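**Protein of interest**
===
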Amino acid sequence: MTRYLRKKSTSTKFSKTQPIPTDSEIPHHRLGLTENWVQFSIFTLITLLIGMTIGVERVALPPLAHDQFHITSIFYTVSFISAFGAVKAVMNLISGHLSDRHGRKTLLLIGWIFAIPFALLIIFAQSWLWVLAANLFLGINQGLTWSMSVTSKIDLVGPANRGLAVGLDESAGYIGVGLGSFAAGVLAASFGLRPAPYLMALVIVGLGLLLSALLAKETKPWADAESAKRRGSSVEPLPRLSQLASYMTWHDKEMFALCQAGFLNKFIDSLVIGFIPLYFLKKGLDVVHVGLIVGIYAWVWGLGQIATGALADRIGRKVPILWGISFIGLGVVVVILSTGQLIWISGAALMGIGMSLVYPNLISGVGDVAHPSWRGGALGVFRLWRDGGYAIGPLLLGGVSLLGGIIAALWTAVILMAISALIVAVKFHETEPKRRTKPFAWQLHPQWLSSNQ
């Protein structure tokens, strides 16, 4: 195993073993939330702005399809989600792997730049194809910026309080989604569906770009510091991207359980972005009240993740994930079976609680398993799976809605949540470091990530 660490790769540039820094090379990169609270706060504010950017899309686009482009097909209306999700999923994979080699900050800046044409294309769109093209740019933006933001926070805090760190990150992001959704709804109701919401998006993007360029630091040295502390670990390669994807998808059943949970989780979020707004509009709600309901879902999701991330550091990841999946499904059932706005709000809040239990702890679980030297790539593979749900979910649920209506699509999502919970219950073992009782798969089978395979 030691020979494997020292052997020089002869295959591809992605298979090189990460150099382990000496103590003299990392004197100023202490791990911890308290030690790095300034940079952590900066990245948290950046994540808030990232969430606000996508929040504009969630409320303003579905009515735009109907009112200005005269699209009546639900399947065609939600196609913007698939375009966004497909690109975001791929960018998650690419950016995660590249960040292990070249750092986080450059990719973060590039991501913000790609958000500019997103807003401009929708402002000047002459057809729905322009909107689909705009969402390709938004997918690149979200895949780069949010991936780098959460990876940077995990770099800074190290293994202690990882759940709290991810919870704070995701909390900021989805509070931002809620703020962006509600603000876009108010602007759309007051000034029209275009251009006001997307002018706001340009302002948000400008602020994010300035913060990232002027105040955010490169955090890869903190990941290197954590690697140095784990000098005695049995495996420290930088696997090829294909190896890492194969490992997480086929070899490591725990990683597979986390990946499928993230994948199906995005089916639910697809409902909230594309289907539930249309469902409420058909029920007679105006765009402001639709924005309020979508915003409450995102705010509960966002605020709750601070507590649920910290909770998982105390009791482990598995229980919150299982309870969260159950609450998500129950919230959808409440929306289906109720008729009043207050009960719809309750159902949206219940879905938000479920998301807050699931979302940060899936990421924390991946962070627990992955070695710091290839953690960015592992998070990229997970986020490929997870946001692949944005690409597949709207198409599958849209097909179901064509056959049986929006209600049938909602019930399909409930069934998929039950299947996901069963897989997690059977395949996933606790990964929280203080409660882990068995080696990880890559420790037992280092050949799965070997550059010689």
About this structure: The two ends are 14 Å apart (CA to CA).
